[in-house]
Each structure stands twice: as structure tokens, then as C-alpha cells.
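Standup notes
- DV: blocked on the single-chain target, sequence here:
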Amino acid sequence: PLDWGDSSKKVQAAQAAAGTRNLDVIAAMNMKSAGKGRVKKPNFKNRAKEFYESQGMKYEHRELCLWINGAPMSCDYLGLFDGVIMEDCKEVIGIQVTSKDGATSHIRKMCSTGKCLAGNRRKNLTEWLASGKRAVIIYFYQENGAGSRWRHAEREVTMADVEAVSEGRKVYLNG
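- DV (later): unblocked, structure below
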């Protein structure tokens, strides 16, 4: 079997021997759980849109997909949100959609001073919150493990989260 710690020349040699340049095929040949057996990632954005529209809110998807050097890259609106809730042609709630496992890391990322294509995330978030708008993370999870029904929960992102991240403290799902 191929050792994935090998140099790139050995990996290229294995590709040539296999007669393919598709790494999924090579991984499937060398590892029992990799490659073609992977499950397609669920699309939580459609689930979020359905949820908010069932509540009578107008959800607009705002995440962009850019092609950089031939590879797709998604860019969140203001570096923060996948979509927004509109009310009277105004943005009122910014929505970040994720799984339960990624919720706290999204909160930390939103509150970080890291730069993105839309500028400084923390600055964008503080301006968003200061203008009276809300920032919400909606996360999805399977209560009884894999194969069970998807559930969702919301977590508001507040200035207290911004302060906690800037002070190096942890953020939690329950606020």
C-alpha cells in the first residue's frame, strides 16, 4: 500500500503505475474507507432557506463563488454570512449556515481580525451589529447520530462574543 507520507515523486510514480491521475481512485485502491465510498456532503443552505421561508421571512443567498486559479472558492457576504433575511428591502439578519461541529469555529472566525476579500471581519461584524442588525448562526445536527433526522438550532452572535474572542476566551454554543 501507498504511504501518504511519501514524497510527491513516489505519489506520482504510484499514479503512473495505476494508469490514472485521479487521487480518489488511488486512495480507494490503497485505503478501504477512502475514495468512492464517501457520502455526499449535505446542503444545509437549502434547509436554512426552507426554515426561514416557513417562518414567513425572506431569505436571500449572498455567498459568492469565485474561480481563482481554476479552483472554486466561496466568499461569504462581508466575510461573515451565507445569506441575509430581508424586511422591507433592508437587511435585518445576517445568517451563517453550518453544521453543529463547525458552529463555534464560525463564531471565532466572524469575530477575528483576519482579513478576507470583504475586508476585516471583526470590523464588518461590529458595524453590522452597531447598525441594529442581528447576526445568527443556524447549525444542523443529527440528534440520534448518523442516519437520523436533521435538526437545527440558532445561535445569536453578539458583541459579547467579539469581546470574548478579542480577549482570547472560549465561545460556546449556549451563549
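- Follow-up: The radius of gyration is 20 Å.
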